[in-house]
């Protein structure tokens, strides 16, 4: 059973998006280099590169680009290197409408980069990411905390655990009304107990089932959700949105667990699908939607994002998401 919004207890709204909602994000911007292969290479074998391409990427900057296309006002604080890739990342985000005033250029450090291998598989498409770590925010880097924490929501997506801990400790001292959204992806680099404790210091957490199961210390999603719900009342976390790929997602609150079905689409590349899903969750939070509607919108964002190679090529506008959902519902049996 779907509940009234667990976010702030408000009524669901359907107001149009006019860039009046304000979201700040603190995290990563990376440059993606794709190699499309004719097959997945086995150890000791080879594969033929059929296509290569470079695009802007990075989990946090992908999320920001997705929100901009939905009409949300977004500010990003991240770091890039003093190179062509860094400049292209900043220019690309600015072209999307993102506020890039707090993008920090680090001298003498290359821009963070990923080499992404995409190959056909029995299940459709395989993807392997090789991360060449470069310029990233770290504890001690200057951040405009007062300005960032004036936004409606703050997405905390940094991979430096010390910086992340510093940021999640801030609302109680700087802005008690500030709501934090925490993607789980980089928390899986920590020991499970540490990562789970850090995750529960965000008002909303977003991730996939493998990430949640790792942090909860179990291989079963149901057990992971049970542990999460047992701990939520003891922490600030009010909602968790957990993607399950082709199985849709689960929206977890302190009162209920709402499974939401996936959309069937032809997958070209899954890079950035989780970032698009997270953007859909943030959009639903801004609208104070009920869990089922929030999950359906987030699933649609993730589904549409896999239509093209790269994290941003398939990102939809708000009108495209709404039309996609409406068309799917029209085809569904009554």
Q: CATH-wise, what's the superfamily?
A: Ribokinase
Helix content: 25-40%
Q: Give the N-to-C terminal Cα separation.
A: 19 Å
Integer average pLDDT: 92
Low confidence ranges: 1-20
Radius of gyration: 19 Å
Number of helices: 11
Second rung of CATH, namely the architecture:
3-Layer(aba) Sandwich
How many individual β-strands? 13
General description of the model:
There is one protein chain. The protein is an alpha/beta fold and 334 residues long. 33% of the residues lie in helices and 25% in strands. The strands form two sheets. A nine-stranded mixed beta sheet has the order 5-4-1-8-9-10-11-12-13, sandwiched between helices. It is globular, with a radius of gyration of 19 Å. The protein starts with 21 loop residues before the first strand and ends with a helix. The model is unreliable at 1-20 (pLDDT under 50).
Question: How do you describe this structure in short?
Answer:
The chain has a single domain (22-29, 58-110, 138-331), classed as Ribokinase (UDP-N-acetylmuramoyl-L-alanine:D-glutamate ligase), CATH 3.40.1190.
């Amino acid at each position: 059973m779907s509940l009234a919004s667990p976010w702030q207890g408000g009524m669901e709204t359907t107001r149009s998006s006019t860039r009046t909602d304000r979201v700040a994000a603190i995290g990563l911007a990376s440059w993606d280099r794709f190699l499309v292969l004719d097959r997945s290479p086995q150890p000791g074998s080879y594969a033929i590169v059929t296509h290569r391409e470079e695009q802007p990427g990075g989990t946090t900057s992908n999320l920001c680009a997705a929100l901009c296309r939905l009409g949300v006002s977004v500010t990003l604080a991240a770091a890039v290197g003093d190179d062509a890739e860094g400049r292209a990342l900043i220019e690309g985000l600015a072209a999307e409408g993102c506020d890039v005033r707090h993008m920090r250029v680090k001298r003498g450090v290359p821009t963070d980069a990923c080499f992404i291998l995409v190959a056909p598989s029995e299940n459709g498409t395989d993807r392997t990411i090789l991360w060449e770590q470069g310029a990233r925010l770290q504890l001690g880097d200057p951040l405009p905390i007062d300005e960032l924490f004036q936004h409606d929501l703050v997405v905390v997506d940094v991979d430096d655990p010390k910086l992340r801990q510093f940021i999640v400790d801030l609302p109680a001292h700087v802005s008690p009304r500030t709501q934090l959204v925490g993607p789980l992806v980089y928390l899986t680099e920590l020991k499970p107990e540490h990562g789970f404790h850090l995750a529960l210091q965000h008002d909303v957490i977003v991730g996939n089932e493998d990430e949640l199961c790792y942090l909860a210390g179990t291989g079963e999603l149901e057990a992971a959700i049970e542990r999460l719900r047992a701990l939520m009342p003891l922490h600030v976390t009010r909602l968790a949105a957990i993607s399950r790929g082709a199985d849709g997602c689960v929206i977890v609150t302190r009162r209920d667990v709402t499974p939401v079905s996936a959309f069937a689409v032809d997958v070209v590349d899954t890079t950035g699908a989780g970032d698009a899903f997270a953007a859909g969750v943030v959009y639903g939070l801004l609208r104070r939607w009920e869990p089922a509607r929030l999950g359906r919108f987030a699933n649609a964002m993730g589904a549409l994002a896999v239509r093209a190679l790269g994290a941003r090529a398939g990102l939809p506008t708000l009108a495209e998401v709404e039309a996609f959902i409406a068309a799917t519902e029209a085809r569904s049996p009554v």
